[in-house]
Amino acid sequence: MRAFIAIELSEEIRDSLAQAQAHLKYAGADVKWVEKNNIHLTLKFLGEIDEERGEKVKSILDQIAKDTKPFEITIKDIGAFPKLEFPRVIWAGLDKGADESKTLAKKIDEALSKIGFQKESRPFAAHLTIGRVRTPKNRQALKEKVESFNSQLLTQNSQLITSVILFQSTLTPKGPIYTKLHEAGFSK
User: Fold this and answer.
1) Collapsing DSSP states into helix, strand and coil, what is residue 47?
2) Quick check: is 127 catalytic?
3) Any idea what the CATH number is for the domain that residue 130 is in?
4) Which pLDDT band holds residue 80 (cuts at 50, 70, 90)?
5) Quick check: is 40 catalytic?
6) Catalytic position from the list 14, 76, 127, 145
7) What is the structure's pLDDT at 76?
C-alpha cells in the first residue's frame, strides 16, 4: 500500500484554504487544485509499504506521540515551490506551529530511518499543498493573484494539533483517496 504520515486539518482551516483556491482560480492558470478534504500537512511520505512495515510505523508513531505536546497551528500566506515566478506547487505556509511541525517531522524521519526508510534529503518546510501547476499557462496572472491574496488579511483560523496520522493513499483517475490507517494521539 502507498502511505504517508500527516497532520489532519480542521474543517475551518480547509474552508479558508478552499476560499484561497477560489480566489486563485480567477487567474485562469493550468493548476490541478487539491480537493478541499484532501488538504493536509505531510510530515513524511513513505511510498509503498507492506502490512508488517505498517505495523512498525504505527508503533513508532505511538512512541513519538507519547513524547509530543499538543501545539497550535495557523496559516500565514500562500506561496509556490520552487518560486512564485516559476511555480510547480502552490502552497499555504504555517505561521504558528511551523517549528513544532518541523521538530515532529524530524523525529519521525530519524525514527523511521532506523527501520530502513530513506532519510529526507531536503530540509522540512511546513506547508499545505493546495495546487500543482501543470503548464506555464497564465503563470503571471497566477503570481499576481497570489500576491494580491497575500496583501489581504488571511482569516486567522487556528487549530490545536493533538495527533499524527498514518494514511493510505489510493490513486484513482478522479484523484487520490486517503484512508486513515492509524492515529497516534499526543499524550503530554
Assistant:
1) strand
2) yes
3) 3.90.1140.10
4) very high
5) yes
6) 127
7) 86
